[in-house]
Write a structure and sequence with these properties.
single chain; 238 residues; mainly beta; Immunoglobulin-like; 2 domains; five-stranded antiparallel beta sheet; five-stranded mixed beta sheet; 1 helix; globular
Length: 238
């Protein structure tokens, strides 16, 4: 797994309004782009579930690790792209929860990005018990067992942080909660694309984070009614 996880300071995740440069133009714009890689990425490894035969029974074929997922055009999935510096974001924290499910002794979402203060609803769709353990450093660390058939439970975090998540029963189960103080973020799929819409005109720093390959940041000026293109390239193993 990556070496850059919760070492990122909370300052790199917050909107640093003191550094913001406002544009005199009015309206909002968008930033779109794609995340790709150079070099040779790590190959996905088969997950050994043999210590829990009930988990093995849930899969016809062996599943693989999620830390590096690539697409057909050297694209990179599970990259969080977000505004790290820019004009303040006045949008309220969403009242609806994001969902995090455990299915097939596997987290269905490997990187879940959401707002600090927003609820995350955690469910167990498996016929076996799990013990979810988000290993927070800035927020409170906790773990909770979730037997099969029990209803989802919700939790919220007050502060921005990248939180590794594991299951204390099944050590191969790993994921991340990416808590942000801005609504302007996206997580790439296998096509590597992202879009940050509804950005007030101004100058921003856009940061892209990947659990293995670290971070990349670029500055961009958004004009009212315009769409800017911004691409990120991560270097995999040479």
């Amino acid at each position: 797994m990556g070496k850059h996880l919760w070492r990122l300071s909370i300052a790199s995740l917050c909107i640093l309004t003191a550094a913001a440069v406002h544009s005199p133009s009015q309206g909002v714009g968008s930033v779109t782009g794609k995340v790709t890689y150079t070099g040779t990425p790590e190959k996905a490894k088969p997950i050994d579930m043999s210590k829990d035969p009930d988990c093995v029974k849930l899969h016809r074929e062996r599943i693989t690790t999620d830390d590096v997922i690539t697409g057909p055009d050297r694209t990179l999935a599970n990259v969080v792209v977000y505004i790290s510096v820019g004009p303040p974001d006045p949008s309220p924290v969403p009242a609806t929860a994001v969902h995090f499910d455990q299915s097939g002794c596997h987290y269905t979402t490997h990187v879940l990005a959401f707002r600090a203060g927003q609820d995350v609803s955690i469910s167990n769709s498996d016929p076996v018990s799990h013990n979810i353990h988000p290993m927070a450093k800035i927020n409170r660390e906790w773990n909770r067992i979730q037997p099969p058939g029990t209803p989802p439970f919700s939790y919220s975090y007050a502060n921005a942080e990248i939180i590794p998540v594991k299951c204390n029963i099944h050590p191969w189960m790993k994921a991340y909660f990416f808590l942000l103080n801005t609504s302007h973020f996206a997580v790439t799929g296998e096509d590597g694309s992202f879009k940050l819409p509804d950005l007030p005109a101004g100058t921003y720093t856009v940061t892209a984070w990947h659990e293995v390959y670290g971070t990349r940041s670029q500055e961009i000026t958004v004009t009212g009614g315009g769409t800017q293109t911004l691409n990120f390239v991560f270097r995999a193993n040479p």
